[in-house]
Amino acid sequence: DFKKFEHIFEILTENLPVADLTIFLTASIETLFHRIILRGREFEEYIDADYLNYLIDAYNEYIVYCQNKFPDKTLIIDCDLYDFVNNEQDQNMILNIVEEKIKTTRS
């Protein structure tokens, strides 16, 4: 099924300009569930682990696609290592990573 959507995506986007940089935020299922609990949103309380794993797998598949198609314009940030919501130092680290990547994509 993904191949069909990929083909449709290619057709629909072939004439669109390519972004300077695509940033992907990734995290393990443990980190995702921890942050869901911290947010305390009622509608997120019943997210099934299988469903979340399915989303992670689909997201990772798309990341691989982007890395293959736009290797110099893809940045992956492992959010198991950073808590940019609650930690200002982590926010600054991520901003520095992004700024450095932007510099390399423009040169």
Helices and strands in order:
Blueprint: H1 2-13, E1 22-26, H2 29-39, H3 49-69, E2 74-78, H4 88-106
Parallel strand pairs: 1-2
Give the structure's gist in a few sentences.
Helices cover 59% and strands 9% of the residues. By secondary structure, the chain is mainly α.
Structure description:
The chain contains four helices and two strands; from the N terminus they run H-E-H-H-E-H. The chain is mainly alpha-helical and 107 residues long. The longest helix has 21 residues.
List keywords for this structure.
4 helices, 2 strands, two-stranded parallel ribbon, mainly alpha, 107 residues
> What structural category arises from helix and sheet content?
mainly alpha
Instruction: Describe the sheet with the most strands.
Output: 2 strands, parallel
In helices, the fraction of residues equals 55-70%
Quaternary structure:
single chain
Low-confidence stretches: none
Order of helices and strands: HEHHEH
Work out the helix count: 4
- Side-by-side strand order of the widest sheet: 1-2
Number of strands: 2
Whole-angstrom Rg? 16 Å
* Overall pLDDT: 92
Principal-axis shape equals: flat
- Percent strand: 5-15%
The N- to C-terminal Cα distance equals 37 Å
